[in-house]
Amino acid sequence: MQSHLSGTLTPLSSPFQRNAICQSESSLRKTMDRLTENANLMIVSDLDHTMVDHHDPENLSLLRFNALWEANYRSNSLLVFSTGRSPTLYKELRKEKPMLTPDITIMSVGTEITYGNSMEPDNGWVEYLNQKWDRNIVFEETSKIPELTLQSETEQRPHKASFYVQKDKADDITRSLSTCLKERGLDVKIIYSGGMDLDILPQGAGKGQALAYLHDKFKAEGKLPKNTLVCGDSGNDADLFTVPDVHGVMVSNAQEELLQWHAIYAKNNPKIIHAKERCAAGIIQAIGHFNLGPSISPRDVTDLSDTKLDNFDPAYEVVKFYLFYERWRLAEVENSELYLANLKAVCSKSGIFVHPSGIEKQLHDCVDSLRTSYGDKKGQPFRVWVDQVLPVQVGSDSWLVKFKKWEQSGGERLCCLTTALLSSKGVTVADGLTWVLVHQTWLKEAGPSSDAEWLF
Prior knowledge:
Layout: H1 15-23, H2 25-32, E1 42-45, H3 60-72, E2 78-82, H4 87-96, E3 104-107, E4 112-115, E5 120-121, H5 123-129, H6 135-142, E6 149-150, E7 161-164, H7 167-183, E8 188-193, E9 197-202, H8 207-221, E10 228-232, E11 247-250, H9 256-265, E12 272-274, H10 279-289, H11 314-329, H12 337-345, E13 347-354, E14 360-362, H13 363-369, E15 382-395, E16 398-409, E17 412-423, E18 434-442
Helix pairs in contact: 1-5, 3-10, 3-11
């Protein structure tokens, strides 16, 4: 029974565990179908105070990460969110913050693993966690401890019991609970994090064990990512850093409990760093520090028209276009006819834009309409970002790119599913790709009350 954070991780090696891995291979294959080879990078990140900075009302560091990921990593890498939040609170956070859609979601402190947009559960992981676990016994014993305050019903999950407890009482309660639950025949892990949260899980659960389980599945498929970067800020993230061969970053705002764990168990590990930057900015810093790939977000590039690419890159073109669109409406670029002329130059003269309402327009007419929208969002909380940008080459000189395009203006948040056809026919890499068709439909439950202000 584990009651304190340790520096090692128990491997998944029993026949039962291997059988559980096999049972959920189909879920993994669906996630991996879009990758033609091993993922270049898998980022496994905690959410609150790691990927998401709750002290950054403009969400700039998160938006910087979003642009970097969609422009450079989405098509050949994997994004995994690993959070202590239950599915209910995770979905609430997605409505509040401009978060990307992960390939895999690990929730409830590593007790639930789901895949893709539909969040299909990993049943093999569920079976594995059922060993020597009985939540009824856990609640029976914890009810005898008055210092424990039960967290909300949404946070009580099949393999997680969650409480609040004062910091000065945590160690004593952890020790006594460990003893009595062991005597009742359970094999559990107790994790204290955030200076107040106490979670009781099956011994085999936890963020690190969930990641080790996924690594085993990737190996079985011959698709182990070339590099894995784990990111965290609190005690329940410590297990992530114990998974063999991962790179790790503790963001600059990491809590004392994680820093103490690092000082005891991983102080001399060169693959784990304490970033100088907060939250998502610290993750970007770690990508650069470990040379895992591009680490300059398009949002940090002042003049996107000066970007030099070695090859045609549809994902970067999409990110660049919508960043310009945001900056134009915020009056963060010069009100210049040259910009509009450059936009027209990358739009086919016969190019069509199909508005989410179904109305068709010429792409050149859409560019002309931008004149009247210059600076119309200046000084307002207006942001644009794209999610799940996935290009597919459909010809020797053409790409079909599907993505979600989000706009947030004040309290209103809108999204449309977008399909764009881009062509390289008759142009050089320096010219950029030509937009031939943009077709949009409203995402269910994310459409507007009026189509008036939706331009692109």
